[in-house]
Amino acid sequence: MILSNTLDAFLPSGETAVALGFFDGIHRGHARVISRAVSRAGEAGLIPCVFTFSAPRGSGPKPAEERIQTEAVKRRLLEQMGVAYMFCPAFEEFCALTPEEFVRDVLVGRFRAKVAVCGENFHFGKHAAGTVETLVQLGRAYGLEVIALPLERENGEVISSTSIRQALKAGEIERANRMLGHPFTLIAPVVHGRQLGRQWNYPTANQNFPPEQIILKNGVYATVATCGGRRYASSTNVGCKPTVDGSSVLSETFLIGYDGDLYGQELVVEFYHFIRGEKKFDSTDELRRAITDNTETARQLCAEYL
């Protein structure tokens, strides 16, 4: 997949079908829009593209903090879905355009779009003045087929990035994953820790959460970690290590059955089940016993995902 962070580069060589949206945390509703653009592109011989945008920290319609997915995770998902181009310009590059200028100059003029797919609540243009109805009208004028899809629901409620964030902060990882349609994922390099786990024969891969990504509720999770093209059942502790005087939040993953050095490598960790909340143990021996129990629980819970 080709990624462009500006409107001025990496333009497609042919006509396109474009999925439109902010796509913060690609959930089931977003995936439906993107998949429809990909399938319509295949039907019509077009290039499947996604147009989203990045907003500077604290500005634009969406804050840059607490992203459900980093750009690395988002790109991984879009590649799996068959997207050929992702356009992700800064919000300032196009926020002053009127709805007609956006359709005429950007979608049709630059991206050579023949199809645009969006959710029924999509807004665009200066002051978000353009609605789906506006897009349909402009599409007729500029030869652009517009497909607007209904919002996806979970138990009768509209799936939103806000509800997913609330679930993640509450440790409701199974609920968050149902709304996402895939596991919440951390992709980050492995950094050095205090190596206490290694002394106890439970070496962990320590990762910092990217500054823009939401941090889960502190506690222990059943996870699957991927490195070297292989998936491992694993247990991951998210928290401040209260038993050993920790302070900063860290993700620590023990890969069951892995033997090697992961320092500096990028590790992909998928979160599936919440095992227990963060707890301060009375002794390191008690902590070691808990780690053993958590590991066995994670092994059982994650067997189906390998």
Alpha-beta content class? alpha/beta
What CATH calls the topology of the largest domain is Rossmann fold
Note the run of SSEs as H and E.
EEHEHEHEHEEEHHEHEEEEEH
Main pleated-sheet profile: 6 strands, parallel
At CATH level 2, the architecture of the largest domain is 3-Layer(aba) Sandwich
Notes on the structure:
By secondary structure, the chain is of the alpha/beta class. It has 2 domains: 2-154, 3-Layer(aba) Sandwich (Rossmann fold), CATH 3.40.50; 183-305, Beta Barrel (Elongation Factor Tu (Ef-tu), domain 3), CATH 2.40.30. It has 8 helices and 14 strands. The protein has helices spanning 28-44, 71-81, 99-110, 132-142, 161-169, 173-180, 196-199, 284-302; strands at residues 2-4, 16-20, 47-51, 85-87, 113-119, 145-149, 153-154, 157-158, 184-189, 205-207, 219-227, 230-239, 250-255, 266-277. It has a 6-stranded parallel β-sheet with strand order 1-4-3-2-5-6, with helices on both faces. Strands 9-14-11-12-13-10 form a 6-stranded antiparallel β-sheet. Helix 3 packs across helix 4 and helix 5 (161-169) runs antiparallel to helix 6. The longest helix is centred in the last third of the chain and has 19 residues, at 284-302. It is elongated, with a radius of gyration of 22 Å.
List the helices and strands and how they pair.
Blueprint: E1 2-4, E2 16-20, H1 28-44, E3 47-51, H2 71-81, E4 85-87, H3 99-110, E5 113-119, H4 132-142, E6 145-149, E7 153-154, E8 157-158, H5 161-169, H6 173-180, E9 184-189, H7 196-199, E10 205-207, E11 219-227, E12 230-239, E13 250-255, E14 266-277, H8 284-302
